Amino acid sequence: MKVINVILSGGVGSRLWPLSRRSKPKQYLPLFEGETLFQKTVLRNSGICNSVFVVGNRENYLLSRNDLINSEIENYTEIIEAYPRNTAAAIAFAAFAAEPEDILFVSPSDHLIGTGEKYEQSILRSISLAKEGFIVTFGLKPLKPETGFGYIEADGEDVRSFREKPNKETAESFLKAGNFYWNSGMFCFKSSVFLDELKELEPEVFFASKTAFEAMDNSFLDKELSMQIPSISVDYAVMEKTKKIKVVASEFSWSDMGSFESIYDYFKNQGHPIDSKGNMVIGTEIHTEFIGLKNTLLIQTPDAILVLKKDQAQDVKKVFERLEKEKPELI
Fold this sequence. Notes:
By secondary structure, the chain is α/β, with parallel strands linked by helices. It has two domains: 190 residues, Spore Coat Polysaccharide Biosynthesis Protein SpsA, Chain A, CATH 3.90.550; 71 residues, no CATH class. It is built from eleven helices and 14 strands. Strands 1, 2, 3, 4, 6, 7, 8, 9 and 10 form a nine-stranded mixed β-sheet that branches. The chain has a three-stranded mixed β-sheet with strand order 12-13-14, with no helix packed on it. A two-stranded antiparallel sheet has the order 5-11.
């Protein structure tokens, strides 16, 4: 039995445009003390896990390889998707590649997480529960009424319900209740337990993923077979339906780094300059003045400039989606 860190690296980071592009998504940007989020993920878990599986895609697998080399990780398994089919299939591919009793610790490649005793305790507890045959998710103690995350309602380690991204009022009620946690997108389970649950709960995903995996050629999945796989998240496919679910309530520091609001907060904590009104410039040394604006970001790259209010950071995804159609060369 091995403990395998399954790193999911297929995301494009559309809410961090123009820093994040299809050619270099956010997990490969060296913004974090000179390291990328992908590197930090690999190194954070290397002391706990025996092995690394990377599930990526044809557009970014070379970036993953480069980060693994820079992190001095030589032994790893690649699964290179031909076409993105969401997280249920991505995790299934890793489970098919593992031995039945292996423990899979699934972690996104684009989250910023603090290491230390609290982190290690949570991971070790999840591994212990996984050995008992449970499917484990991680709930993060919420720090504010965040509307951009899903929530887990818990009773100890038992999961009462999963909740979609709430409005502000609902999020505030979750905080007051005290037994709601941010859904971290991290999981832990035996590969055989996950596959058994997927087969029972979403057989079409299971069998189509199995067919594509068995036809894999030198780590590359076939596009035609991949297109037969229903695109569904692991939350919908398994986590919200399985009777074997447990949650490990965790207090380690965590951010999905999913928006410029997160980037702003991180850079501010690192001492990045802001003016007296809380305005921040990223990507240029050109002297910039903000008049009549507060808590605003200006982000510059060689071919694009983005100006946005910090509290409207989620709307960047809409810009990305529009540019996909109007100016694809910019994404």
